[in-house]
Design goal:
The protein is of the alpha+beta class. The chain contains four helices and four strands; from the N terminus they run H-E-H-E-H-E-H-E. The C terminus is likely disordered.
Length: 175
């Protein structure tokens, strides 16, 4: 009876173990290691914009005239050419041309002469290729002297056009 019990216990043990999975053997399957988790994506670095090209600044300049004249001298034309070279690189920049006179002559005459001087410079720049709609030509007459005095040295400094980059919008009425 003892042997029946042993046989019965052995049969129960075999039946209970038949449903269990046998441990894997080292020789039957290759060992597969768990793959490491994927690396986190590289942080997105915002693309730095290329540095803006250096913009040419339009330098304020003056050109000078002979007494009672609005004719452009060769020196004046060379100065206007330099200004043109700067201005064509800055099509977004307006230009203001202020005609000035010395103190001789009446107020009305000097206003008209200052306007002819400013228009002469503007027309020359338009002839070179600048857009007239980005330039304003005005006359100050004798109201804004650069040099004070009653001699040729002072008067020659006051017979001029001042060419300036315009800082604000220029009204259409004055163009």
């Amino acid at each position: 009876m003892k042997s029946i019990r042993i046989l019965a216990a052995a049969a129960l043990a075999v039946a209970a173990c038949s449903h269990a999975q046998p441990p894997p053997s080292a020789s039957s399957e290759p060992s597969v290691e768990a793959a490491p988790p994927p690396a986190p994506p590289a942080p997105v670095v915002p693309e730095q914009p290329a540095p803006a090209p250096r913009t040419v600044e339009i330098a304020a300049t003056s050109v000078y005239f002979e007494f009672d004249s609005s004719e452009l001298s060769p020196e004046t034309r060379a100065t206007l050419q330099t200004l043109f070279d700067q201005a064509r690189q800055r099509p977004d920049q307006d230009l203001r041309i202020e005609g000035n006179c010395d103190e001789r002559g009446t107020r009305e005459y000097n206003l008209a002469l200052g306007q002819r001087r400013a228009d002469a410079a503007k027309n020359y720049l338009v002839g070179l290729g600048l857009d007239a709609s980005h330039m304003t030509a005005i006359s100050n007459g004798k109201e804004r002297p650069r040099a004070l005095g009653d001699d040729e040295a002072a008067w020659s400094q006051n017979r001029r056009d001042d060419l300036l980059p315009a800082t604000g919008a220029v009204s259409q009425a004055s163009r």
